[in-house]
Every structure is written in structure tokens, then in C-alpha cells.
Amino acid sequence: MADRSTAVKIAALLASAVFSVAVLAHPGSTPEVNASRVPVAALNEIEKTTNDRFTSDPWDSLGDTRGSYLPGYGAIFTFEMSLVRVTPISPFHLTTSPEEIKSVHDRKVKQLAVLKDAMRDMLVKAAATLTTLPPSEQICFEAYFFSQSFEDHRGLPQRLSMTANRQKLMDAVARHAKPAEISALVEEREE
Predict the structure, then answer these.
(1) pTM metric for this prediction
(2) Residues 106, 113: contact at Cβ < 8 Å?
(3) Do residues 115 and 143 make contact, with C-beta atoms less than 8 angstroms apart?
(4) How far is Cα 12 from Cα 64, in angstroms, rounded to an integer?
(5) 34-77, pLDDT tens digit by residue?
């Protein structure tokens, strides 16, 4: 996935999440996985709205999104990522300078804010897309961050989760709430 645009990665992440909920919300049914089940319109919309955010300093998704449906609670989607691409220590890159370490840290701090905006957008899109999820239940996206041992971790979480009630998100969208109002509906947690 390293050669694909980050916007496409985000679109694939949400499509994977949507498909996971569709499978998990219908116990006993295991639909065959094929490309026609991915909601192309949703992918196009997400790509269109996120493409400009990630072109200057893309991040790396480390594997596929995993989703679970917990009856009575809601849908939880987890993914692992590196906030920026980092050159690891290798025979071709034996040491990391203090300048490189500072640059990586500064870039990660900046990308964390971008990711938070993208995750809030994903929550809103998931609330509209996950029609099999009862409105009273929650939607949660949780990112686990990978980093190299030489990195400066100060001020950066190892994990970020965002949770919101599906009905409250749908109501906010229906009344054309401003981003600040939608953000107030999202419980954000860093560890």
C-alpha cells in the first residue's frame, strides 16, 4: 500500500470498516468478499474530501482495519499506522541525526491534528453508512501508532480513540451542525 495515495488508504479503511460491520451485524451470514460489495460512491466521496489533507506528508497504514460489532454497544474499528513515513535504521541508514529525530517528531505532531479531523469525518460518514447499526449505539474508531525506537515520543499518544453515538451524529448532520458542534459529540481519548 506504500505506493497508493493516503486518501485512497483512508477510503479503503472506511470501506473495510463498513464491510466489517455489515458482516458482523448479520450473524450466521458470511457473504463472499468481492469488489462489488465495496460502496464505490462512499469511496469516491471520502477520497474527494480527504485528498488534499495528506499529499504533503503521507502516513503509512500498517495492515487492514479490524471491525467488531458488540450487541448493545456498537461498532468498533481498529487500525495501526505510523503518522509519518520514517526511514528505519538499516545497513543503508546506520544512524539518525538529532535533526532527523526532531523533524520526525514535529511532523508527527502536525499529522496527529490532521488524523483527528479525518477520524471525526469518518465517524460522521460511518453514522450515515452503517444503516444496520441501531441509532442508539456507538461508533468507535481507534488508531494504534507505530514508531521507531529512536523517535522522540514526548507529547505523542500510543493510541487515539474517538467514539460517538450514531443517532446524535445523524441528528447533527441533519441540522447542518458546524464542525465544532460535531466535535463536541465525539469522545476523544489519547493514551
Answers:
(1) 0.72
(2) no
(3) yes
(4) 9
(5) 332 233 344 344 444 444 555 667 777 787 778 888 889 999 98
